[in-house]
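Q: Sequence in, structure out?
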Amino acid sequence: MSYSGGCQCGAIRFSAERLGASSICHCRMCQKATGGFFGPYVDTEGFVWTKGPPAYFQSSEAVRRGFCAACGTPLSFESKGHVGIMIGVLDDPEQAAPATQLLFPEKLSYVDHLGELAAWTNPKTGQDAAGTFAGVVSRQQPDDGST
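A: Exactly. Output:
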């Protein structure tokens, strides 16, 4: 089986023969690199960039992070020949449910309670997010890499 994914604009695509361990990391570098509450990653084996090379930022002496220079999508966490991919950039992110988390003092206090948040509704119409944004046309590349 092969796994694939890419950035929002479609300039960069990749494939991997296998997915390995998946995790979320709560360190401050991962928060900043993703713009999120944590960094969600899955290890890969047999990984290749199939369309366009990513740009890189050397975030530490041990790690460089790949991203799309055109649309800004964070893509990879690379160290000593190891390539971890952001779970959300897989064409099917359901294939990489996180199994562990790397805990650091920088873990945000509210992360463990995100599932308790109320579902958003439009204050003007009472519609949920799917109803409110149903007419929005996405400019993102389809998950299967087609144009």
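Residues 3-132 form a domain with the Metal Binding Protein, Guanine Nucleotide Exchange Factor; Chain A fold (CATH 2.170.150.70).
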